[in-house]
Amino acid sequence: MIKKLVESVPPGGAHETDVVIIGAGPVGLFAVFELGLLGIKARVIDILDHPGGQCIELYPEKPILDIPAIKTISGEQLTRQLLDQIEPFGAQFHLNEMAITLEKTDAGKWRIKTDMGTMIEAPVICIAAGGGSFQPKKPPIPGVDDYEGDTVFYAVREREKFRGKNIVIAGGGDSALDWTLDLEPIAEKITLVHRREEFRAAPDSVEKMKALVDAGKIDFHVAQITGLKGADGKIEAVEVESKSDGAYDLPCDTLLAFYGLTMKLGPIADFGVNLIENRVEVDTEKFETSVPGIFCIGDMAHYPGKLKLILSGFHEAALMSHGAFHYVFPDKKLKFQHTTSAKDLQAKVGEG
Ligand SMILES: Cc1cc2nc3c(=O)[nH]c(=O)nc-3n(C[C@H](O)[C@H](O)[C@H](O)COP(=O)(O)OP(=O)(O)OC[C@H]3O[C@@H](n4cnc5c(N)ncnc54)[C@H](O)[C@@H]3O)c2cc1C
Question: Which amino acid residue places its CA nearest to atom 46 of ligand 1?
Fold first, then answer.
């Protein structure tokens, strides 16, 4: 599973690096490679708990046919290969964290903060935020606001929080199934609720879930959640409606609702860079924004003729890296080299 391919740095703490990349989509990942070739270190932040951006979240199994020199590759395989390619550069990943604020330090660096309390300082910021941060869709359950963040959640940010809980998990996609399987050993009880017998999740996860139901380890109800019971933010039961059994309650102390994701520009709107139609305006020489030291590449970048394609993002990553070099190493001269002939570049990726 793609989730296990990258170790995430535990949230919190203060860190320093050369470039902070916001977004672990294909373009953010390739930026690690291009920066790495120039000896530039990077840390990558993503609100998702796995790298790959749209490739993993929206079309992991669909064939991509327009990656140069690769006849066909799935979104998941492209992500795996990018992770393999950037492995020598040891980039640190801060997954499950949203980049929320950006400020200049007295020393002239950028300080970025996440919603999990992580702080990273760097001379360069690279926004590779695609169509925006993936954020959970709110379930259409009356009164759900009263419980949000207390006993109703739309993502698992800290797994341990769910130990010993009596959890209803709602949804039929990969997130619902993955967390059903993952939390089953530590929860007091898991009840999965989905409106149909069919699931959108990976067949292997569905099989594993069914085996747990057969073994009596979890419950599964084909039903729709219609309401919540409880008080003061503490949920006591979800009300459900099923075609076969009518309306009834499922007692629980926690609801995890996975109703899909939507992409929103989010906090980047307040980073002080010029925006055009919810995207970040850049030059096409370095892919720098209106603010020196802040670059933007991939789907989030706006310039005349921009094509929202992975290959465009890869090109932008190369030019951004050359622009970033001058901020990271202001006293060094950048020498353009080919990987085929430069021994020092080959050594960086463990070749030659
Ligand atoms: C169905 C579909 C099919 C496609 N097919 C093709 C194809 O065949 N060929 C092709 O070239 N392209 C294709 N694309 C387009 C391609 O997927 C995008 O061009 C590509 O994903 C852009 O990569 P990216 O890294 O810029 O952004 P994304 O893949 O969108 O990744 C951006 C990441 O940034 C994260 N992020 C954003 N804001 C924040 C924040 N504030 N804090 C933390 N994280 C944040 C997001 O959560 C996301 O994971 C397709 C797109 C779709 C939807």
Answer: 133
